[in-house]
Amino acid sequence: MEININRSFLLRLLRLCWCTLLLGVALQWQTYAQAPVKKYTVKDGKMFIELSKQISTATLDSFLVQFNLTDVGLHQYFKTQSADSLTQQGWRLEQNNNQIVVFSKPLMVFGDIKDPVDRIIFSGKDGADLSLFPVINQHVVFGSNRFKNKKFFPEKDSVVTFYLRNALQARKVFLAGSFNRWVPDNLPMTKTDSGWVARVPLQAGKHWYKFVVDGNWNIDTDNQLRENDGRGNVNSVYYKTNTVFRLPGYTNAKRVYLAGSFNNWKERDLLMNKTARGWELPLFLTQGTHIYKYIVDGDWHHDPTNPETVPNEHNSVNSILRVGKPRLFKLEGYTSAKQVFLAGSFNNWRDFELPMRKTATGWELPYSIGPGNHAYKFKVDGKWILDPANPLKVGNPEGSGNSYLIISPNHTFRLKNFAKAREVFVAGDFNNWDPKALLMKREGNDWVFNVHLPAGKNRYKFIVDGEWIIDPNNKLWEQNEHQTGNSIIWVEQ
Questions:
Q1: Domain for residue 44, yes or no?
Q2: Would you say residue 336 has pLDDT above 70?
Q3: Per-residue confidence at 29, pLDDT binned at 50, 70, 90?
Q4: What is the mean pLDDT of the chain?
Q5: Looking at the structure, do residues 106 and 11 belong to the same domain, yes or no?
Q6: Helix (H), strand (E), coil (C) string for the chain
Q7: What gap in Å lies between CA 51 and CA 74, rounded to an integer?
Q8: Residue finishing a domain among 96, 126, 156
Q9: Which CATH number goes with the domain that contains 448?
Q10: FRET label pair with 38: which of 6, 221, 265, 469, CA 20 to 30 Å apart?
Q11: pLDDT band at 226 (very low <50, low <70, confident <90, very high)
Q12: Under a CB-based contact definition with an 8 Å cutoff, are residues 395 and 434 in contact?
């Protein structure tokens, strides 16, 4: 009995030391016989999970279900003793010995949220995956794939066939990535005579992935596109394309490149692939209007197969491609004007590029534009004018203002119980923190504004009669360089 007491005492001391180092708080422990450790703690902006190495499968299942952690990958850890799957999901191995294992994960500050269960559940939805692996088209204008030793992944009916060459000695291979939240064991790959394959339905855009070979996480060594997620993990990158650029002929050319507004006209960025009939390059392009040209052995050419062109600054033309449904921009009146152009943030304010078509009552131009917040103006015979049909305006450096168009608003900012305020603006990452751009509308005692927010993390503040404040009704915030804090909202796909 004395030996059991001493052993229990030593374990208690060790556990108290670990808790002091990892959690900074005293945890209550039972002396003598103890059940397997299964604890969570939230402290100093982090969530900690502490588990006994002797925990049973049934007890672990109950713990994971209770706190909505079934997709964390702890079963995989206890099975393989490899923390790769947890690391992929943002967890850090803090302590690992013969008795316990402790993992931590950053958690946003929630102020008044006191219930640790709520914090655990919120952590699963706090956007950590979005921060590391934003959804398919967040800030991604274009993308192309670069493989060696194998061709692009085959695709049919939006289903992409991922394949891993060789690894024929492996017992099990799984595919994991941003498209399944990095769960390491729910996309099994099928063995073939030359490797492993898995078919996944994907939307057009950017995706991150790895192969899990007998429990070990591996990048795709045949894929030259790789990115570090900022936490020490390197992942392979794949673009599900939605456009194929084809240039017929020029079979004697040595090199052909594609350049356009989507890649800032970089001349040697997008090398095209030679085919029997010419040159081609599959590309992902975000929704909107894109201007482009081909560069054949140093000479620029517009697309001979595309009749749609726009003028450029070199007294020539560029080819134009629209992705998505066009929006009709209209300017009523000005029927005596000689020429009218449309320009805005969507085309870098190139005021010579988008001539409008004259109609019986004014001017119009169909133009594809993606979801977002867009500033624009019309240029009538050299004079800039606002859109008289659009009451929404934003400021500009010249002080004349720009018309403002919000496509597909996905969030309503609401500042509650500020009835005495004279005017309220909202500003944040989404509008470069312009304090006079987005004037909110009074709605009873509240102020509201509908806006399109990009997926992922968005920081913002309200400006109430000239004073910057965080959102008093949003418990999620972070410190800024001015030590005044910014409110945070996460937008999922």
A1: yes
A2: yes
A3: very low
A4: 82
A5: yes
A6: CHHHHHHHHHHHHHHHHHHHHHCCCCCCCCCCCCCCCEEEEEECCEEEEEEECCCCHHHHHHHHHHCCCCCCCHHHHHHHCCCHHHHHCCCEEEEECCCEEEEEEECCECCCCCCHHHHHHHHCCCCHHHHHCCCCCCCCCEECCCECCCCCCCEECCEEEEEEECCCCCCCEEEEEHHHCCCCCCCECEECCCEEEEEEECCCEEEEEEEEECCEEECCCCECCEEECCCCCEEEEEEECCEEEEEECCCCCCCEEEEEHHHCCCCCCEECEECCCEEEEEEEECCEEEEEEEEECCEEECCCCCCCEEECCCCCEEEEEEECCEEEEEEECCCCCCCEEEEEHHHCCCCCCCECEECCCEEEEEEEECCEEEEEEEEECCEEECCCCCCCEECCCCCCCEEEEEECCCEEEEECCCCCCCCEEEEEHHHCCCCCCEECEEECCEEEEEECCCCEEEEEEEEECCEEECCCCCCCEECCCCCCCEEEEEECC
A7: 10
A8: 126
A9: 2.60.40.10
A10: 6
A11: very high
A12: yes
Of 384, 407, 430, the residue that ends a domain is 407
* pLDDT at residue 96 tops 60: yes
Q: 69 phi and psi, to 5 degrees?
A: -120, 25
Query: To which residue do tokens 């429990």 refer?
Result: 215
Does residue 318 lie in a domain region? no
**Backbone phi and psi for residue 50, each to the nearest 5 degrees, phi listed first:** -120, 125
The pLDDT tens digits for 429-482 are 888 788 888 889 999 999 999 999 887 789 999 999 999 999 999 999 988 888
The residue ranking higher by pLDDT, 332 or 113, is: 332
Residues 440 and 482 in one domain: yes
pLDDT digits (tens, 9 = 90+) for 345-355: 998 899 998 99
